[in-house]
């Protein structure tokens, strides 16, 4: 299992947190996403070689938040 941290701007409450978590976990190959509102970081656990991080960022963008 590989891990990556993506910084995301625009999340302000638990609603945002859940939306981003669900969107990221819906990406094929992602096992788990933990969203930290304070640090604005999304920690992703995924199957190595099966996930393109650009796809994850695109999924985040589709929910209306801005991955950096
Ligand atoms: Cu919110």
UniProtKB/TrEMBL annotation:
GO molecular function (one): hydrolase activity
CDD domains for the chain: HMA
Domain HMA: 2-68
Annotated TM spans: none
Pfam families, per the entry: HMA
Alphabetical UniProt keywords: Copper, Hydrolase, Metal-binding
UniProt-listed Enzyme Commission number(s): 3.6.3.3, 3.6.3.4, 3.6.3.5
Xref: Gene3D superfamilies: 3.30.70.100
Keyword ATP-binding: no
Protein name: Lead, cadmium, zinc and mercury transporting ATPase
């Amino acid at each position: 299992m590989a891990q990556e941290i993506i910084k995301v701007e625009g999340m302000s409450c638990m609603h945002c947190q859940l939306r981003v978590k669900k969107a990221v976990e819906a990406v094929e190959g992602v096992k788990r996403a933990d969203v930290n509102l304070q640090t604005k970081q999304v920690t992703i656990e995924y199957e190595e070689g099966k996930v393109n991080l650009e796809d994850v960022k695109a999924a985040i963008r589709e929910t209306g938040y801005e991955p950096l």
